[in-house]
Amino acid sequence: MVEAAMTDQPVDYEDIQGLVRFGYRRLTQACFLLLRVTNPDAARAWLAQAPVTSATKREAPPETALHIAITSAGLRALGVAEDIVEGFSSEFIVGMSSDSSRARRLGDLGPSDPAHWQWGGSLDTMPHVMVMLYAVPAEFDEWGRHAMSGAEEGFEQIACLTTSDLDGVEPFGFADGISEPTIDWKRDRPARDEELSDYTNLSCLGEYLLGYPNEYGEYTDRPLLDALRDPDAILPRAEDAPERADLGRNGSYLVLRQLQQDVEGFWGFIDEQVQGDPVRRKQLAEAMVGRTMEGEPLMGRTNEAIDGEDDPRNTFTYRSDTEGLRCPVGAHIRRSNPRNADLPPGPPGFISWAARTLGFDADALANDLVSSTRFHRLLRRGREYGVPPLEETGLHFICLGANIARQFEFVQSAWLSGLRFAGSRDESDPLIGNHQPREDGTASDTFSMPVPSGPDRRVCGLPQFVAVVGGAYFFLPGLRALRYLSRGQP
Predict the structure, then answer these.
(1) Which of 113, 299, 309 is nearest to 202 (CA)?
(2) Residues of the chain with pLDDT under 70
(3) What's the pLDDT at 351?
(4) Calpha distance 284→147 (Å, rounded)
(5) End-to-end distance of the chain based on CA atoms, in angstroms?
(6) How many angstroms separate the Cα of 336 from the Cα of each of 19, 124, 179, 413?
(7) Which of 42, 137, 337, 473 could form a disulfide with 154 if both were Cys (CB 3.0 to 4.6 A apart)?
(8) What are the φ/ψ torsions at residue 278 (nearest 5 degrees)?
(9) H-only helix segments in 3-123
(10) How far apart are CA 468 and CA 474, in angstroms?
(11) pTM for the full predicted model
(12) Among candidates 228, 227, 229, 253, which has minimal Cα distance to 238?
C-alpha cells in the first residue's frame, strides 16, 4: 500500500459502474449471466459496446441497468498481458476455490467444498465474465435480449443465475438488506490513519473503490501502467503516481457466492429445540440472527448518534451489552458487524487511553477481542433466488470491496467461520456456519445464549443450514478501464 497524497480531485461518477453506488431495489427483476470466452476478438468487441450503467444520478431513475465483472482467468482469456494481471491482489489472481487452505479458512467444508460446486469450483467451470442484468419486470425480457445481442459470438454461457423478488425478506423469513456502510463520496473524511473512539458507519471511498485512500490513509495496490502502454490516455492517471495510468481507479473487487438455504431444515431444527412452542420458536430464531424477523435489533433502538447512519433500525452498538444478554455475542448480525470502535470504551484522558492501549485495563482487555469494525466493512449487493417452499432457494451473496483479504476473507474466516469470535468457545455463525468438526476434532455446532445468572443456555448439534454451491472473485472495472481492456494489447 502507498500512503495517501493530499488531493481534492472530484469523483468521476461517469467512470464508476452504478452497482457501487446503487442497490437497484426498484429494478426487481435481475439475472447474472456467467460466461466463458470462446473468441477473444469477438468478446472484446462486445465488451466495447456493452451498455454499462454508470454511477451518475439521473433525473428519472433508470428502468434498466447492466454491469460487467471479470475474473483473473477472464482477463487472461481476453488477452490481457500477464504483468498487468499480476498487478491485482493475490486473492483475486488465484481465486476463491484455489486451494484447500483457503477453503478451510472460508468455511467451505463438507457440502460447501468447492469440489461439489455447480460452478466456479474448477478451471473448467470458472466463469470468465459475469454480466449482471437488472430491470423493471415489464422491460426485462426484451431489453435483456437486446443488451446481450452479439455476445454469443465471443462467449458461451455456462450458467444463468436467476433471482427472486421476495420484497426485502430473505428465504428464512427475516427482513434483509437493512445495514450498509455509508460511503464518503464527497471525500470529506481526512485520509489518514487515526484512532476513532466511536463506531462509525461512514467509510472512506478507498474501502470500496481502487485508486482512492482507505481507512488506513493508504492506496490499495492495483495495476499502474507506464503511460506508453496507454498512448490514447484512455485510463485515468493515478492520484498517488500521476505519471502512471491507473487501471484500477474507479473499479472494485466483487465477491459472488451462491448460497443454498435449507429453509425447511432451519425451521425444523428450531421447532425441535422448542418442542413446537410458537413464541419460543420465534425467540430462538431471532436470537440466532440478532434481529427480529421484522428487522428491529434485539439491542433495541438507542438513538445513538452514529456518523453516517440514517436508518433508525441501525442506531445502536453493543457497548452496553458486552455479555450478550440482549443480543447473543455469537448472533449472525453481531458477528458480521460488531459495531465496535478502534479501542474499548473508557473515560477520556491520556492515562485511560494508555491503560486501554497497553493492556493494563482488565475490563478493556476483555472487550478488546474483536478487530475494529471500520477496517472490515462490506458493501452488499446480493439478491435472493427461488421461492420457498416451492423450489430450491437461497441467496446470491454479492459484496464489493477494495481489499478481498482484509474485507470479505477476514469477515468470513475470523468472524463468521472462526470458532473464537469475541472469546466464544467452539462456535461458528449459527445461521451460515458450516458446523463441521475441524481437522483436530473441535466441534463448531453450538450456539450460546447468556443468561443473567448461571451458565449460558447452549443449543447443540446445529446442522448446516446454508451450503455454498458456487463462487468466484471478480474485478468490476471502471468504464474507462473496461474500454481499455476491450482494446486488447496496446
Answers:
(1) 309
(2) 1-8, 344-369, 490
(3) 53
(4) 46
(5) 27
(6) 21, 32, 11, 11
(7) 42
(8) -65, -35
(9) 40-49, 72-77, 82-85, 90-94, 100-106
(10) 17
(11) 0.94
(12) 227
